[in-house]
Amino acid sequence: MKAEDLRDKTPDELRDQLVALKKEAFNLRFQKATNQLENTARMRAVRRDVARVSTVLTEKARAAAAN
């Protein structure tokens, strides 16, 4: 997921995506705790995607407040 692609989305789409990513992160943590996690790199990728979406949401909120 690239930040450029996220900037094209609306804030509502970004919030929906953020919720989905947080659910996935929760499921991955649960799999790790029960030793069922196969792709450990996915945890890092999801965590970084959450950060990207949050950053873009913050940028959009600041831009809206500035106008």
Question: What does the model show?
Answer:
This protein is an all-alpha fold and 67 residues long. It is built from 3 helices and no strands. It has one domain (3-66): Helix Hairpins. The radius of gyration is 14 Å and the shape is elongated. The termini are far apart. Belongs to the universal ribosomal protein uL29 family. Pfam families: Ribosomal_L29. Keywords: Ribonucleoprotein, Ribosomal protein. One of its GO terms (cellular component) is cytosolic large ribosomal subunit.
In short:
The protein is mostly helical.
Q: Helix-strand pattern, N to C?
A: HHH
Mean pLDDT: 96
Instruction: Round the Cα radius of gyration to an integer and report it.
Output: 14 Å
> What is the number of strand segments?
0
Topology:
Blueprint (H helix, E strand, L loop, with lengths): L2 H5 L3 H23 L7 H26 L1
